[in-house]
């Protein structure tokens, strides 16, 4: 119990550190939030211009929930990059802190930050478009946000290896992967319109299942029990990706330490 308490305190220290970093750059955080809201409004206005309520809700759900998933992915995938940018990479990775403790702190902060963004965007878009969610099943949206979060946490941990292994190009690689997920996951359209090979790839993106289920829940009021075909792939991905990511990151960390890749510059 004492060890667990110590590790949880260490995780909270990373949450507090990330909060202070965010507070330091609060001007940029406001700018990013305004950009995210403006981007979501611009996309949703396409549906408004077509006078199509279903299209409008489809675009709104895609914009809001992709924003949440992309924030979660970015924060965790850039864990190493943040340390390098702040000049704390060597200190953090040589400190007597378990890596899962470090990742847990980064994940808690990412989820909290993403939820704040999501709530702000949801409120703004709901007021702007006077959205009708009378038939929405909010429980379905909440359940699939949780399931999707676990999957993206696992992918984020595995992707965080890239900035660790590739000092110069790692952060750019994570951005490319995020862009591919955006393209193949049906954020603003059905994956059925994609080329066949991209539809095949979409099966491996957790965002595909999250967005499909959340749309069903919010637009058609579909319950969780009727969306098990979306739930089980997400549960499986979360169950596999998180331990696999921690294992792979541990191997990569030992290799990076052995070969001198823990550099501040990048």
The amount of helix comes to: over 70%
Low-confidence stretches: none
SSE order, one letter for each helix or strand? HHHHHHHHHHHH
Overall form: globular
Number of strands: 0
Number of helices: 12
Round the Cα radius of gyration to an integer and report it: 19 Å
Mean pLDDT: 89
Q: Tell me about the largest β-sheet.
A: none
- Please identify the oligomeric state: single chain
User: What is the CA–CA distance across the termini?
Assistant: 39 Å
Backbone structural class: mainly alpha
Which percent range describes the beta-strand content? under 5%
How are the SSEs ordered, and which strands pair?
Blueprint: H1 2-24, H2 26-49, H3 53-77, H4 79-86, H5 89-94, H6 99-129, H7 138-159, H8 161-165, H9 170-184, H10 196-202, H11 206-220, H12 228-259
Explain what this protein looks like in three dimensions.
The protein is mainly alpha-helical and 266 residues long. It has 12 helices and no strands. It has helices at residues 2-24, 26-49, 53-77, 79-86, 89-94, 99-129, 138-159, 161-165, 170-184, 196-202, 206-220, 228-259. Helix 2 (26-49) packs antiparallel against helix 3. The radius of gyration is 19 Å and the shape is globular.
Summary tags:
80% helix; 266 residues; mainly alpha; 12 helices
Q: What's a concise summary of this model?
A:
The protein has helices spanning 2-24, 26-49, 53-77, 79-86, 89-94, 99-129, 138-159, 161-165, 170-184, 196-202, 206-220, 228-259. The chain is mainly alpha-helical.
